[in-house]
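User: Can you recover a sequence for this backbone? Please restate the input before giving your answer.

Assistant: Of course. Working from this structure:
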């Protein structure tokens, strides 16, 4: 019987694509005019090189949360040859404009699930509690946890800690996330039921033990069928 549902944040509850676009729009006018042409495309390529983990030609993780730790490397790549101090200043300003945006399906689904399941969050981001608060979703969760740096997903102990915080056994918990490497493989290895949210329509082949949804809106109907 499923008693708890634990969510990843980035790419699951947090719409990074919208957040990045808004931050870029906000900072573009602060970039010297000579460097603006083509900057959005260059920065998106640099962000992919910085944050995406690729395996067998497939993106298996998008670690955009690293921008909160150090936003400078992708800006250095996008503004190659630019003044170092200016690039550093733009990168930090860009980070300050990264306002978390919740996916449209997040709040309605959390509203539908609470009361029937214990709800939790487990993220590799060191700013998990702050991000959930800025998404205005804190009130839905019984437990919110950042994985310790030495136990970040897909480390088994990260999932077990989250289960303990929520008061459920691994077999009683569903983990919902967008990362094939960290979320799907990590949750299965720790004994949780895994649900992959495929927001990019990638349709990566999954283990028979994992389940795929394209929207969180599919969860309320799926969860009662999971053992």
């Amino acid at each position: 019987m499923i008693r708890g549902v634990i969510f990843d944040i980035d790419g699951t509850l947090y719409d990074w694509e919208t957040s990045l676009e808004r931050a870029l729009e906000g900072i573009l006018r602060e970039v010297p005019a000579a460097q603006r042409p083509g900057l959005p495309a260059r920065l998106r390529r640099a962000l992919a090189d910085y944050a995406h983990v690729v395996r067998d030609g497939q993106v298996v993780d998008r670690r955009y949360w690293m921008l909160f730790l150090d936003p400078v490397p992708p800006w250095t790549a996008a503004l190659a040859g630019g003044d170092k101090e200016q690039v550093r200043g733009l990168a930090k300003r860009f980070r300050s404009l990264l306002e978390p945006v919740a996916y449209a399906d997040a709040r309605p689904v959390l509203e539908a699930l609470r009361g029937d399941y214990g709800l939790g969050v487990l993220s590799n981001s060191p700013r998990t509690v702050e991000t959930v608060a800025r998404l205005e979703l804190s009130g839905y969760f019984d437990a919110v946890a950042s994985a310790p740096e030495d136990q970040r997903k897909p480390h088994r102990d990260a999932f077990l800690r989250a289960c303990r915080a929520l008061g459920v056994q691994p077999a009683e918990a569903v983990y919902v996330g967008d990362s094939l490497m960290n979320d799907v493989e990590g949750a299965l290895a720790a004994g949780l039921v895994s649900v992959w949210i495929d927001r990019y329509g990638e349709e990566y082949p999954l283990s028979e033990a994992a389940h795929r949804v394209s929207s969180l809106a599919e969860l309320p109907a799926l969860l009662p069928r999971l053992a």
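That completes the design. The longest strand covers residues 118-123.
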